[in-house]
Design a protein that fits this description.
It contains 3 helices and 7 strands, in the order αβββααββββ. The termini are far apart. It has a 4-stranded antiparallel β-sheet. A 3-stranded antiparallel β-sheet has the order 4-5-6, with helices on both faces. The protein is 28% helix and 18% strand. With 171 residues, the chain is α+β, with helices and mostly antiparallel strands. The protein is globular and about 40 Å long. It folds into 2 domains: 8-40; 44-166, Mannose-Binding Protein A, Chain A (Roll). The longest helix is centred in the N-terminal third of the chain and has 32 residues, at 9-40.
Amino acid sequence: MRHWKPICACTVFIALLIAGANYQAANAQRAGAENAKKKRFIDHGDYVEDTKTGLLWQKDGDDSKKLNYYQAVTYASKQRIGRLDGWRLPTRKECEAIFPATDPPFTDTKYTDFPCCKGNHEWNSYWTGELDVRLPDYAYVYQWYHKGGANNCYASKNYVYVRCVHDPVKR
């Protein structure tokens, strides 16, 4: 037969204090992560500021409609968004940094969560400003589906979306 030792009331009190502190710490950590996420992207009307990189992004993900690479370069260079000139196509790394851009303030992001080529879905991409110098008429797109990632394709024969980027602006 086991003999149970009586539990001191102060032991129970200390255990409850520790449990309460752990609960409050976990809630504070969750709230801090949510606030950090909310503050990363700032809505400036027609463009979005990434506070982590300082880059400014075209807010609307399908404003360009689908273009080939050469049309996309021209499209980006002619943009005047938020009274700013000097827009360009992003690099692969810049695209990766905001992928999948599905949370506000981004709009019309052409993201789908399905792996490529399975089912009746559209697998969209966005042009980067990077040519694949190993092959003639090849440039990189950033795949805006499933896990994302860069891929090269024919620059003149493939038509994908453009989300322009602007280098940080001194205020």
